[in-house]
Design brief:
With 70 residues, the chain is mainly alpha-helical. The protein is built from 2 helices and no strands. It has a domain of 26 residues. Helices cover 63% and strands 0% of the residues.
Length: 70
C-alpha cells in the first residue's frame, strides 16, 4: 500500500501530536517524583552541596586528577 502525500503528512502530524502528549504526561510525572524526592531528602541534599573547601592558599591551584587523551 502506497501513501499519498496527504496521508503521509496527516500521519506525521498525528504521530507528532501523540509524542507531544506522551512527553507532557511523562514530564509532569517525572517532575512530581523529583519534587517528592527533594522534599523527602532535603537535608541530605543540602549537606551534599555544602562540601568543605580544602585549605588552598592564594595562588595555589587545585590539582586536576583527570587524564588527558593526546
Amino acid at each position: 500500500m502506497a501513501y499519498s502525500p496527504q496521508e503521509y503528512l496527516a500521519n506525521k502530524e498525528r504521530i507528532k501530536a501523540a509524542q507531544k502528549r506522551y512527553y507532557q504526561r511523562t514530564r509532569e510525572a517525572r517532575l512530581s517524583y523529583q519534587k517528592g524526592y527533594d522534599d523527602k531528602n532535603r537535608d541530605q541534599i543540602r549537606a551534599r552541596k555544602r562540601k568543605p573547601k580544602t585549605g588552598l592558599s592564594e595562588g595555589e591551584v587545585e590539582p586536576n586528577n583527570e587524564t588527558e587523551l593526546n
